Amino acid sequence: MSTVIVIGAGTAGTLVANRLAKQLSPNDTIIAIDQDNSHLYQPGLLFVPFGKAKPSKLTRPRAAQLSRRVTYIQASVESIDTKANTVFLKDRSPIPYDVAVIASGSRVVTEETEGLIGEGWLKDAFTFYTLEGATALRDRLANFTSGRIVVNVVDMPIKCPVAPLEFCFLVDAFFSDRSTRDKVKITYVTPLDGAFTKPVCSSILGSMLNDRNVELITEFNTGSVDYASNTLVSYDGRTVPFDIAVLIPPHAGAEFIFKSPGLGDEFGFIPTEPKSLVSKVASNIFVIGDATDIPASKAGSVAHFEGEVVCNNVLHYLKSEPFEETFDGHANCFIESGHKKAMLIDFNYETEPLPGKFPLRIGAPLLKESRINHLGKLAFAWVYWHVLLKGRDIPLIGSQMPKSGKQFSTKPVREVTPTQSQESH
Description:
The protein has helices spanning about 10-25, 130-140, 165-175, 200-210, 255-260, 300-320, 370-390; strands spanning about 5, 30-35, 40, 60, 70-75, 75-80, 85-90, 95, 100, 105-110, 125, 145-155, 185-190, 215, 220-225, 230-235, 240, 245-250, 250-255, 285, 330-340, 340-345, 355-360, 365. It is an alpha/beta fold. It has two domains: about 5-105 and about 255-320, 3-Layer(bba) Sandwich (FAD/NAD(P)-binding domain); about 110-250, FAD/NAD(P)-binding domain (3-Layer(bba) Sandwich). The protein has a five-stranded parallel beta sheet, covered by helices on one side. The protein has a five-stranded parallel beta sheet with strand order 11-18-12-13-14. Helix 1 packs parallel to helix 6. About 45% of the residues are buried.
C-alpha cells in the first residue's frame, strides 16, 4: 500500500492522476493538490482578445476533472522535504508520500521586468497568458483603429513558444477583416536570433511574418518598460515604441520550489532526466510538464506525451524495477495563422519540425497552412477535456514522435532578414 502525491492539478497533473487511477492497485492512495478549484483551458486564452472565446467557457472545477479514485486537496504547497518524503501545506497537516509527481507548471513573473507593472499595465500593455490580461486586451483591441502594436517575448523559456507568433498572425487577420490593417503597424520583438527556436521552422515562420508585413526585431532583451513614453527598452539601450504592447513576461517555476532546498534551479524549474522524467534530486520524485528543465517545449501536448512514461516509471519504482527511458522530447502543436488556417508542427529532441503528413503518410499536412489544421486546432478543445485530461490514449499518436509521413530530406526555405536595430518611424 503506497501513497502517490501529484502536486498540481493542471493539464499535466490531472492526466497523470487519472492514468495512475487506472494503473495502481486499489489499495494505493492517489492525492492531487492544487491551490484552487479552477482548471483553466490555457490554449483558449489566445482567442479571447479577438472575441473568439468566452472567458467563462475556459474554466471548469479541477475536482470534476479527476477520477473518483483520486483524493483532491485544495491547498497551497509550502515546500517539499525530499529527504523526509513529506509535502508541507499552508494551514494544513503535512502529508508523507512514497512517490511524488511534480506537475506544478510555470507562471508568469511580471515583477521581474522593471516598470512592467506600472500605470500603463492593463491599459496600454497586456499579456494574454492570463485570463485577466486576455480579457483586458480584448476590450482594448475592440476600439483600436490605428497605431503600433508590439508583441514582445521578454525572455525564454515560456509556455507554448509559438503562441506569441500565433497572436501576430491573428491580430493581422483581425484588422484585415476590419479593413484597417494599413493603419496598424505590427512588430514582433524577440530575444531569439530568429522567429523561432528551430532553424527550419524559424525560417518558415519568419517568412509568414514577412508576408503579413509584420516587422521582426530579434536579439532584443527587454530590460524595462517606460510608460511615460510607451517604450520598450533593451539592456543594450535600443528602444521600441508602442501604442499597445502585448508582452509575454518571463516565466518561473512554482513558488514552493524555491522554498524546497535542493529541489529546483535558479528559475524554479526542476532538474529532470530527459528520457525517464525522474528528478535528479530523488528517485521517487517524477516531474512532468512545464515544471521540468528538460529541453522540450512547455506545451500541453508535451505533458500528454510525457504522461505515459511518468506513470510507467511510477509503477517501476513501486516494484523496484529499472526505469524506462523512452521519452524522446515529442512535441506537437497547431499554429493558428489567421483567416481560418493553421500550420502543424511535430518534432522531438533530435528532429526539428519537418514537412510531410501527421501522424501517418495520410494525415494532416506538416509545416503548411491549411483549413484542416485550423479545424484540428478548434477540435483540440473537445479532445483536451474528454481525452487528454482523462489520461486516455489518442489513436495513432503515442508518446514517441512518429517518423512515418515526414520528409527527412528538405529543400532550402526562404529566409527573412530580421531587424536588429530600431528603425526610424
